[in-house]
TrEMBL record:
EC number(s) given by UniProt: 1.3.1.76
Keyword Ribosomal protein attributed: no
Pathway noted in the entry: Porphyrin-containing compound metabolism; siroheme biosynthesis; sirohydrochlorin from precorrin-2: step 1/1
UniProt-listed PANTHER family: SIROHEME BIOSYNTHESIS PROTEIN MET8 (PTHR35330)
GO molecular function: ferrochelatase activity; precorrin-2 dehydrogenase activity
Name under which the protein is recorded: precorrin-2 dehydrogenase
Amino acid sequence: MSNLSSYLPLFINVEGLKVLVVGGGKVGTKRALKFAESKAIVYVVSLEFKDENELRLFDNIHLIKNDARYLPENFLSRFNIIVVATNDKELNERICETCKKLGKLCNNPTNPDSSNFIVPIYGIEKGVGIAITTFGKSSLTSKYLLDLIRSNILKENIFSLVDTMGKVKEILKLNVTEPSIRFMFYSKIFYDDKFRYYVDRGEIDLAIQRAREIIYGR
Ligand SMILES: C[C@@]1(CC(=O)O)c2cc3[nH]c(cc4nc(cc5[nH]c(cc(n2)[C@H]1CCC(=O)O)[C@@](C)(CC(=O)O)[C@@H]5CCC(=O)O)C(CC(=O)O)=C4CCC(=O)O)c(CCC(=O)O)c3CC(=O)O
Ligand SMILES: NC(=O)C1=CN([C@@H]2O[C@H](COP(=O)(O)OP(=O)(O)OC[C@H]3O[C@@H](n4cnc5c(N)ncnc54)[C@H](O)[C@@H]3O)[C@@H](O)[C@H]2O)C=CC1
């Protein structure tokens, strides 16, 4: 496994990005659908398509029936992101190597060492995004961790906290021009017991009023 310190988690907006999925079997289909649901423009190159009907439900998925052993570099270079998911391990690795040389983001689902990004399990709910990976060791454990966070941590008070701090940010950006002073206020408000008491009880108007008291000193 590559050095884990060189992984940087990012939330990428894939809308309009060009994604190539090589191999239209179980794994390739799942990845193609995931990217298409997030509004990427997806091309799937494969000898055959396991679930052609499901893929055809999306206007932004294009199917190309072809042998991926002969994909030229000038074809690969048209894409932003490439996923290699044939059942030919050497072919997957060879295409990923070429794509990385071309400066592309490439995912080989069976081999994180060949990939330069991996797909975490994720959930986005009420303005909070959580992504978890075990870098290929155990997807089931990743799923379990996400469920634990969802059922034990992501409760109404956390969503209220995020929303209210978002409102506090709007107030501060509008009224305090100096960033270093704004930053001092963010912490002061976030850790204020009264502010948090109101947020926990869902009394958002009172929480905002408390934030204003802290900002304006009254
Ligand atoms: C490295 C990675 C690919 C990458 O590079 O992105 C990878 C690799 C592999 N997974 C395998 C198996 C399983 N994968 C799942 C499920 C998911 N796997 C996903 C991601 C990733 N899987 C990446 C790292 C994720 C991480 O480490 O956390 C999810 C999150 C997203 C997605 O696939 O779209 C999706 C959640 C679906 C959801 O949303 O519910 C389950 C559970 C299930 O099906 O319920 C199992 C059963 C066993 C188990 O628990 O692992 C095998 C075959 C092993 C073999 O052949 O024996 C390999 C390849 C290998 O190891 O060779
Ligand atoms: N990441 C994950 O969660 C998992 C990964 N895997 C691995 O991923 C790989 C793919 O698995 P599946 O999708 O289940 O296999 P699959 O057999 O369902 O699909 C393989 C696809 O690749 C296509 N293909 C093969 N050679 C090709 C070529 N030369 N050119 C174009 N297309 C070609 C086939 O037509 C087929 O559609 C396997 O190596 C498997 O071990 C398997 C299970 C889970």
